[in-house]
């Protein structure tokens, strides 16, 4: 039954119609009574507020005249106060304006008084300074008066101003005349301190451009005079065809004079004329170098007749010259005389590069922006002097290439073997020449020159010299082994006797490869010291990178020769190897025990190898000897593998083979410092397969069960090895899954 409290009055009739029991009627009655009591309580609460509401209504009806009167009185008082304050502020403001105007007038008057006094003081100071020849003070006061002239106005006394201007103009003209005369006098006497003094006086006299040109002209004149004196002495020496003509010294003196002039006066130039003044002076000094330096280099080319010399050298290189060391080669110019010129050119180039770097650093310091610095640098390097230097460097490259080729040819032609040496003289001589010429080219300081010479050196080493070394390796194996004594007589040979020429040729090839590597490392370290720029170092390294391939080519030459010796040497092992073919690897237990005690073929093979190596080891450099042992082991293992592949085995035979292989590995490892065990890997694994008890036992070593073993045989080859066992049935082998 719904509650009456949840419905409105319109629903009451509906609720009454729904009452069907006495309990519902009683419950609804109680709800109605409770609702009635709640309404009564709310009415009592509202009626209790009646008195307060009536009092509020009464207060609203009271008159507001008294309040309005009070507000009017307060407003009038506020108006009177504001009006009096405004009048007072207006009076104060007018007084402040009058005071400010008076203050400005006073300051203006004081400024004019100070201006008049300063101008008068300047005039008086100039007069006194001129009388006492204190030109610095006079010039400074003239400059100060010029600045005060700008501040002057029309209110000053025109007569006084005109008189002051006349006095100052006369003093300035007189001072300018004195400064110019004193400057010329100091220049004529080469009194540098006085020149600097009167150069500084140009600035306060508003003669900045004239002062810069005068001082720069003085420096250029001084340098030109000294250069002319040195050139005169040089010309006399050249005219007498004297060997004392010191072109390097004359050029060095020129560079030193210019560098000192730029360095010692840089602060003066920047202080008086700014960075632009320093830049102007550096460019003018370089112009002097273009004139005097080019004249020295041109005279050098004429005196040494380098153009004619280069034509003769170039004419002798037609591409069809006989090989290095050939008696048919014709030397058109003595290389020793060429070397004298090369040393001179290196010194000239080295000094020029050092001078260029110094002057370019001054240019970069004075240039206002990087773009301007780059433009000036390009103009600097494109000047007459640097163009002449590049011409000289071009002659140097041609002469250096000729010198290297002729000296290497001479080293090959005069090749000899000194007592107690394993390498002939041509290797040491050739690489001494290469190192000297390469270092000399780097010492020029010219990147292009260094790269050109280094490339040509590599061409000579990898071409003509490699051909000379390789030509001596022809049939070296036959020549070496044909002269080898019989096995029985080897023990009687003297190990200290002169090595065979074929062995020396192989030593030359191997040593040349090592020397090429050392040469590259040495030149890289030298370039690191001489070329500070990282990009220049990378260019040098790029040129030297080809030497790595050249070194490998020489090692390959020696390797092929040693491989041919090992192949020919295999014929001396035919006897022991034939014994292997005749050895029974299907022994009984008694035969197996007897074979263990005898070890016939392995012992004979080791004795033959040892006796032959005893003969060859004193003749070979360590690298060649070790390489020969490795090549020989490779040949022997390949031959043994072929022999064993044709034999039949039982398990005891497989165990005997394993014992024989271990014996060979143990003894041959003592002959060399290089590892030879890996050369026996296939034979060792063959012995392992042939010594198994059953075919299925191979699965313990194969595939996932191989562990650390790296198999050198594939599955088909292992199956063929198992077929060599006479005691393994074909059915068991066919059932084997590898």
UniProtKB/TrEMBL annotation:
Membrane topology: Peripheral membrane protein
SMART domains: Cog4 (SM00762)
Pfam families: COG4_C, COG4_m, COG4_N
InterPro entries: COG4, COG4_C, COG4_M, COG4_N
One Gene Ontology biological process: protein transport
Location(s) in or outside the cell: Golgi apparatus membrane
Domain of life of the organism encoding this protein: Eukaryota
Keywords tagged on the record: Golgi apparatus, Membrane, Protein transport, Transport
One annotated Gene Ontology cellular component of this protein: Golgi membrane
Domain COG4 transport protein middle alpha-helical bundle: 168-474
Protein family according to the UniProt entry: Belongs to the COG4 family.
The protein's name: Conserved oligomeric Golgi complex subunit 4
Species assigned in the record: Tetraselmis sp. GSL018
Lineage per the UniProt record: Eukaryota, Viridiplantae, Chlorophyta, core chlorophytes, Chlorodendrophyceae
């Amino acid at each position: 039954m719904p509650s009456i409290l949840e419905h409105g009055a319109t629903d009451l009739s509906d609720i009454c119609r729904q009452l069907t029991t006495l309990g519902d009627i009683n419950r609804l009655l109680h709800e109605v009574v409770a609702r009635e009591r709640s309404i009564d309580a709310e009415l009592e609460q509202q009626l209790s507020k009646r008195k307060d509401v009536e009092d509020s209504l009464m207060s609203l009806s009271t008159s507001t005249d008294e309040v309005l009167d009070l507000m009017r009185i307060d407003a009038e008082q506020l108006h009177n106060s504001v009006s009096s304050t405004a009048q007072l502020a207006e009076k104060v403001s007018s007084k402040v304006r009058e005071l400010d105007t008076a203050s400005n007038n006073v300051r203006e008057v004081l400024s004019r008084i100070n201006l008049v006094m300063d101008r008068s003081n300047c005039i008086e100071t100039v007069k006194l300074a001129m009388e006492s020849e204190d030109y610095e003070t006079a010039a400074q006061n003239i400059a100060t008066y010029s600045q005060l002239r700008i501040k002057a106005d029309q209110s000053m006394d025109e007569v006084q101003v005109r008189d002051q201007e006349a006095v100052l103009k006369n003093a300035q003209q007189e001072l300018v005349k004195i400064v110019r005369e004193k400057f010329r006098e100091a220049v004529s006497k080469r009194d540098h301190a006085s020149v600097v003094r009167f150069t500084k006086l140009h600035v306060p006299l508003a003669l900045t451009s004239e002062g810069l040109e005068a001082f720069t002209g003085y420096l250029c004149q001084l340098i030109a005079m000294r250069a002319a004196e040195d050139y005169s002495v040089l010309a006399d020496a050249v005219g007498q065809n004297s060997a004392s003509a010191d072109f390097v010294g004359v050029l060095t003196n020129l560079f030193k004079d210019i560098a000192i002039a730029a360095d010692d006066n840089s602060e003066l130039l920047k202080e008086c004329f700014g960075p632009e003044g320093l830049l102007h002076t550096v460019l003018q000094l370089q112009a002097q170098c273009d004139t005097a330096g080019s004249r020295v280099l041109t005279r050098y080319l004429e005196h040494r007749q380098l153009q004619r010399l280069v034509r003769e050298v170039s004419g002798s290189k037609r591409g069809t010259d006989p090989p290095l060391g050939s008696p048919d080669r014709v030397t058109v110019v003595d290389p020793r005389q060429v070397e004298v010129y090369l040393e001179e050119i290196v010194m000239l180039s080295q000094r020029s590069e050092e001078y260029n770097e110094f002057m370019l650093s001054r240019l970069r310091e004075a240039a206002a922006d990087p773009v301007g610095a780059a433009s000036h640098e390009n103009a600097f390097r494109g000047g007459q002097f640097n163009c002449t230097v590049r011409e000289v460097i071009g002659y140097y490259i041609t002469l250096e290439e000729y010198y290297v080729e002729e000296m290497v040819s001479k080293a090959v032609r005069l090749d000899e073997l000194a007592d107690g040496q394993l390498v002939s003289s041509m290797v040491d001589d050739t690489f001494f020449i290469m190192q000297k010429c390469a270092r000399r080219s780097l010492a020029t300081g010219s990147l292009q020159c260094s790269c050109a010479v280094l490339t040509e050196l590599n061409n000579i080493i990898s071409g003509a010299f490699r051909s000379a070394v390789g030509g001596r390796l022809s049939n070296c194996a036959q020549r070496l082994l044909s002269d080898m004594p019989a096995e029985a007589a080897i023990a009687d040979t003297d190990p200290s006797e002169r090595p065979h020429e074929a062995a020396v040729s192989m030593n030359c090839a191997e040593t040349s490869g090592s020397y090429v590597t050392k040469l590259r490392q040495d030149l890289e370290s030298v370039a690191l010291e001489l070329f500070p720029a990282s990009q220049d170092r990378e260019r040098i390294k790029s040129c030297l990178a080809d030497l790595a391939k050249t070194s490998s080519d020489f090692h390959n030459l020696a390797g092929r020769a040693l491989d041919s010796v090992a192949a020919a040497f295999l014929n001396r092992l035919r006897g022991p190897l034939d014994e292997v073919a005749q050895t029974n690897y299907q022994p009984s237990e008694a035969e197996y025990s007897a074979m263990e005690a005898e070890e016939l073929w392995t012992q004979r093979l080791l004795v033959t190898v040892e006796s032959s190596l005893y003969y060859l080891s004193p003749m070979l450099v360590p690298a060649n000897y070790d390489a020969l042992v490795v090549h020989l082991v490779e040949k022997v293992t390949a031959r043994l593998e072929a022999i064993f592949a044709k034999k039949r085995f039982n398990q005891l035979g497989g165990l005997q083979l394993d014992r024989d292989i271990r014996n060979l590995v143990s003894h041959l490892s003592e002959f060399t410092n290089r590892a030879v065990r890996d050369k026996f890997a296939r034979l060792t694994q063959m012995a392992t397969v042939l010594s198994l008890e059953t075919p299925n036992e191979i699965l313990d070593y194969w595939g996932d069960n191989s562990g650390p073993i790296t198999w050198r045989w594939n599955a088909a080859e292992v199956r063929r090895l198992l077929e060599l066992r006479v005691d393994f049935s074909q059915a068991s082998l066919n059932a084997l899954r590898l």
